[in-house]
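Hi P.,

Sorry for the delay on this. The queue was packed all week, but I finally got your sequence through. Input first:
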Amino acid sequence: MFPLGTVLLPGTPLALHVFEPRYREMVRTCLDGDRSFGVVMIERGSEVGGGDVRSDVGTRAHLVEVAATPDGRYRLLAVGGERLRVLRWLDDDPHPWAEVEAWPDPPVADADAHRGALDEVTARLDRVRALQVDLGEPPAPVPATTDGGLTPEAATHRLAACLPVGPFDRQRLLASPDGASRLALAVRLLDDLTAELEARADLA
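Then the structure:
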């Protein structure tokens, strides 16, 4: 396990510079195994030196690129895979370990309603992007198309990854029990952000 001050959503990339000895050992463990590790957000504390409070919902990361530096550090590129739920934390020996289980979204009961919810979030994100541009700010990223064979769960995570929100709201999106809840939360977050940006635009 790799507790971090950020949130990894399924399907999104993660670049890491690994310098702490215990996480260098973790990289070697991964390279000797299936090249994957769990990522959870640190809710309080620091990822350096232990003593942190960790989320119990995270994502499995799969190593894509690994480069070792002459002094023993690693530069990693990983991509988020399945969502995980931590069942029990084990001793950090020699690095963090946990018993986990996969936590996929339940099947979507109404595909048309799901598509409509995706479109609703996309429209709100477009409005936020337009306001950001009007204010001279870098706009949120444009979501990649949610067509082309993505599962409903993957589509909601891909869209959630584009929301310009902080790590705690991103963790709430990850920990939503299903796609409908995740998209409903995205609507609320974007509505709040829209109201804030519109107020700033009125003052400009």
